[in-house]
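User: ok so my PI wants both of these folded by tonight, can you help

Assistant: No problem, let's get them done. Here's the first:
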Amino acid sequence: MRITGRNDMASSQKMGIWWQVKDPDGYVVDEYSKWETYSTGPGSEQEFRGGSFDLDKAGTYTISIQLFMNPADEVVVDDYYGNLCTVEAVEEFAGTISRKELKYDNITGPIPVG
């Protein structure tokens, strides 16, 4: 997952982030926290890249995020607590293929075409 924070201050700031993602059953599937190594200049952005996780359960995944500035006396400058996405089960199709043909340049032939 990738989240970008922007420094809207008039001076350079060091930014940090924390997030936690939970699956539809409430289990934590991803948690990440980091302070940037160097400061971000005014109007500039800092990208934070965490791990990856599978969206393998139907239902709503939630996320909690906090963006910080000033690691010596940290202040939460933005946050979000809510839905990340909803995964729906895909309808399964059952049956057989009765005709296998390939159409290419207006020529139809059985697969494989030689």
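One down. Here's the second:
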Amino acid sequence: MPGGVTYNSGMSLRILFLTNQASYHQMHFARAMVAHLGADNFRIVFHQPTSDARTEMGWRDEYEDRCILRWWQSDVERDEALEWIDNADVVIQGRFPIGFVRARIRAGKLTFACQERLWKKTPTVWRRLSRLPHLIKNYYSVDRANYHFLAIGRYAAADLNNLGLFRGRSWRYGYFMHRPEVGIDRTPNACLQLLWCARLSPVKQPYMALEITRALLDGGRECHLTMIGDGELRTEVDAQINQVGLRGHVTLTGWQTPEQVIEHMRQADVFLMTSHHGEGWGMVVNEAMSNGCCVIASAELGAAAWLIEHGQSGFLYHRNDYQPALERVLTLSPSGLAAMGRAAQQRMANLWCAEVAAERTVALCEQLLSTDPAKATQLYTDGPCSPSTESKR
């Protein structure tokens, strides 16, 4: 057991999740944890109010769940959060200051860091040196056997393992949605419906979505692209639509509510996820697959590399070379694409949903707190809470 801390296996675990601000996917996970542990045994702490950027995207903190503690809202809620940090059996530290869990970690209590990749840009020597104070404060100074890592994305654990951190203590994780309803028949579209959803910014590479649409049209596949989102590249994207002759084939909607986005996904055949390696996870991959879309995404994307089974539930491409994936799409009938969408939805329902993540999180914690924590690596071979042993960035 970590640091000699005792745990009564006859009682339910008390688990605390610390995060920076409210998000709908964190609430999906929180509700699944409450369903699994009971209302008295789980809390989620929001450190800050919803940011202006998230509000612009349609996010709202209007949740009334009993499990929520809002750090900034009152001394009472902050004091309760601090009590949970000190006394919970397990604390999962998302984007939350390390200072509040440092004493807990040093006391030998089971704690998880839950984060995306460290190096969203190529880790040059200068970048490594400039991040050294951050690494010492947040990692090396609390590098203990009871401090584990929940890796949000394919490359998150490797970035830290390569620095000698969390080796043998890294587990696959992510952001999660509720288990989707499977088996709903979708009528294939004669005109291939493409969907893209993100901020119109360089890391999201919106121009690539236009290139893919143009390539499909040139390959003889009638299609239409809907782009949801806004941002600093809006004017340039609009101009590019004209430049490549796509005015009648692309619709720019601006930001939509989460509910509207889901409805678009339910109508789409293919979801294009064009972000590069700077995207740590990519929640829209979860959402699109859960709603029956065949997803085309870069293997550099944290979520895509774990969620998509290439050629079965979507397509992965490497180093912006999406041509092989498009060639496969051009050979598929509408019903063939629909079948891949169903496979994607099934994978999310069976493995990468909030309910499975909650069940596995509890099982992993129980094993790590048991008299034989080494067996935790044998619990799962794929999906949430399986060992994250990837070594390359």
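Residues 155 and 240 are 32 Å apart (CA to CA). The chain has two domains: 2-178+353-378, 192-350. Good luck tonight!
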